[in-house]
Design brief:
254 residues, 2 domains, 13 helices, 0% strand
């Protein structure tokens, strides 16, 4: 059975991080002369920011219910939240309640359905739960290929890409090891290759860093169109940092 994470729920409410972006909403709408590449993504950004204060208040109330062990009330609130918005965090939390039998009948199948719903919308916790479910047959049939797919998205690849990037910088700057431009270029290319593969999947973090690579020319030729496309995808997967990056690009010349 998928494990039930008993850390304080307020720590697990990652979508609450969008609160720090709410103050940018008015400036975003008022910012003049946005670069052309940002305009197609404006609707995604505006929609994200419009939902942010509503989702924050609602998720805070749900977190309080969960911390207070009012699981039945929390389950009802979570169902309502998922019905109104594509709230990946709420769906993952609902999966946890079904998995643990808290406030709801214990059901591995129901837990899996909500984990999968959340995973498909980019929640990393849910992606790992889906991988475990496919591996162990919890609430679904065992499927080694599907387990490998979700483990690839939710667990190792981004850390591997980050490690390659760190090695590239180490060789480029001659820290710890002698400077070696060839090895620096090799590891940077490995990092970008992993990020490109991962960005095809529901992983907002990978799309975000790939967008930054194209914006700043880190290992690739600078390309504003590619940068915005990846950042917009990241924003659509509810990765808050992408909103700030798009806001920054909005004030930059082509």
């Amino acid at each position: 059975m998928p494990s039930f994470d008993r850390r304080p729920w307020t720590r697990r409410a990652a979508p609450l991080l969008v609160a720090i972006l709410i103050s940018t909403a008015n400036r975003l709408c008022a910012a003049p002369q946005a670069p052309a590449g940002v305009v197609p993504c404006q609707a995604v950004v505006s929609d994200f920011l419009a939902r942010a204060p509503i989702m924050r208040r609602r998720d805070e109330r749900i977190a309080q219910l969960l911390d207070g062990r009012r699981y039945r009330d929390a389950a009802a609130a979570l169902r309502s939240a998922v019905g109104r918005y594509p709230d990946a965090w709420a769906a993952n939390a609902l999966g946890d309640l079904y998995a643990a039998g808290l406030g709801l009948p214990r059901s591995a199948a129901a837990a899996f359905r909500w984990y999968l719903w959340s995973a498909e919308r980019g929640d990393r916790f849910a992606q790992r739960q889906v991988a475990n479910a496919y591996l162990n047959g919890d609430g679904t049939r065992r499927n080694a290929a599907a387990a490998a797919y979700w483990f690839r998205i939710g667990v190792a690849p981004f850390q591997l890409a980050w490690m390659y990037h760190g090695l590239s910088q180490t060789y480029a700057e001659g820290r710890i090891v002698p400077a070696d431009r060839a090895k620096s270029a090799y590891y940077l290319d490995e990092s970008l290759t992993d990020l490109r593969q991962l960005a095809k999947e529901p992983n907002g973090e990978a799309a975000y860093y790939l967008g930054l690579a194209y914006e700043y020319g880190d290992g690739v030729r600078r390309n504003r169109t590619e940068a915005v496309a990846y950042l917009c995808r990241s924003a659509s997967l509810q990765y808050p940092a992408a909103i700030g990056a798009l806001r920054h690009l909005q004030g930059q010349p082509q």
